Amino acid sequence: MQIDADKQATTESYRRRREEWLLQRNQALAEVRALDAQITAQTHAVSAAQTTLDQTLLANNQALTVYNFIKKRATNAELYGWLLGQFKALHYQAYDAVVSLCLSAQASLSAETGDYDSQIPLPQVWLDNRHGLTAGEHLRGHLLRMEREYLQRYERRLELVKTLSLRQLFDDASDPQAG
User: Fold this and answer.
1) What confidence tens digit (pLDDT) does each residue in 61-98 have?
2) Largest alpha-carbon pair distance within the chain?
3) Together in a domain, 42 and 96
4) Domain that residue 41 falls in
5) What angle do CA 152, 157, 158 make, to 5 degrees?
6) Measured in Å, how far apart are the chain's first and last C-alpha atoms?
7) Interior CA angle at 109 toward 147 and 156, to 5°?
8) Considering the entire predicted model, what is its pTM?
9) Could you tell me the CA-to-CA distances from 123 to 36, 44, 145, 154 in Å, in that order?
10) How many domains would you assign to the chain?
11) Which of 55, 73, 91 is a domain's end point?
């Protein structure tokens, strides 16, 4: 009995050892599969990172190309300074032409009304530091004041009414009943 018991104990210990080894082998195989899956995932991540790096480098090169183009093209501060000078000159020429038209309108108003003494003075509205930006509105206001004064002071009738007799007009020379 003792020998049977020792034999069974030895057999049982071999069986348990075998089951442990099988369990360890299965765990090792599962870990290998998990590591293979992680390696595959990391390979995809590295590939995605490489693609992102390539795209970033390409975008950086394109941005550098655009920057150099913008830096070297004609739209820089020097060009804008030149354009500002051109626009100031054109705006002043237009202002000068409008002032002469306002003076002509004022002279026409004086000639129309016969009143050469009470003229509305033309305001000096050109401001050099503002490049005359509000001059047009001031001159428009001046023209509206002249129009208002003309309409208030010099009212004219729009219709002429005259009553006349046709008989007197034709002097009874051709009296149709006389004949």
Assistant:
1) 999 999 988 888 766 777 888 888 899 899 899 989 98
2) 180
3) no
4) 1-73
5) 110
6) 180
7) 70
8) 0.46
9) 89, 77, 12, 23
10) 2
11) 73
